[in-house]
Amino acid sequence: MIEFLETVVAPPPDRPEMAGPDHPMRKVTRQVAFEANAWTRDRAEKVGVLFDTMAPQWHERVTEDRSAPLRDALARGNVKGGGTCIEIGSGTGSSSSDLVRHFDTVLALDLSREMLRHAPDAPAHRVQADATRMPVRDGRADCLVLVNALLFPEEMARALRPGGTLVWVNSLGDQTPIHLPADDVEKALPGSWEGVAAEAGWGLWCTLRRVRTPNA
Fold first, then answer.
1. Which of 123, 131, 144, 195 has the smallest CB count inside 10 Å?
2. What's the predicted TM-score (pTM) here?
3. Cα separation of 34 and 32, whole Å?
């Protein structure tokens, strides 16, 4: 169950109009979240190439307004500080400075080599990896952070420790190409989860903790 909080970070005017329901990445997002075997090697290669081509201009998308949802989630989403955070789909590192202030260690993963090449070496530890096969032990992460990143439910559940938190952010709300509303994020994850959600700035966020595993 998700508790929806009041909005405390008001949206500025003129939100960019980017991605309606017919955007191709919207279809991919729902498929990989809800359909088994939807993430193929061919699809991974195509998505990797797509983000490689966008990497040199990615910094142009970074604004204070787009950072508001993550900051609000860390402030009001009952996200415990310290420990190890894995940032999935870290891109060029625009969220790293916020995360390293909240966690002891931040491991930043991205499928795109070019995105990582345009990111600073510090403060996060950067690794090229497919988020369906993260190079971490079971239950290693205290927190998983996905800012405009594809959700792979089984792998998220594997990597997150019992009692850990998953943070889901869409920085442009329903105009984000990789978009799922909070209720669908909860529905996609295996087992039973609870958390909170809110809108902030142009975006939305939710934080979720597992209550029961699928077989409990």
1. 123
2. 0.93
3. 6
Residues in the chain: 216
Find tokens 């950072």 and name the residue. Answer: 67
- The answer for residues whose C-beta is within 8 angstroms of residue 141's C-beta and 6 or more apart is 84, 85, 86, 159, 160, 161, 164
pLDDT over threshold 80, residue 61: no
Q: Which residue is it, tokens 């960019």?
A: 16
Distance CA 4, CA 186 (A): 13
Whether 196 contacts 167, CB under 8 Å: no
Helix (H) or strand (E) holding 165: strand 160-170
Do residues 131 and 111 make contact, with C-beta atoms less than 8 angstroms apart? yes
Structure tokens at 71: 């900051």
Predicted confidence at residue 10, as pLDDT, reads 82
**Which residue in 100, 103, 98, 99 sits closest to 84, CA to CA?**
103
Q: If you search the block for the tokens 């191709």, which residue do you land on?
A: 24
Q: What angle do CA 124, 125, 130 make, to 5 degrees?
A: 115
Mean pLDDT of the chain: 92
Q: How many CB atoms lie within 10 A of CB 35?
A: 9
Domains detected in the chain: 20-212 (3.40.50.150)
207 to each of 1, 3, 78, how far by Cα in Å? Answer: 11, 10, 8
- The CA-to-CA distance between both ends of the chain, in Å, stands at 17
Burial of 176 (0-12, 13-18, 19+ CB in 10 A): buried
pLDDT at position 12 over 90:
no
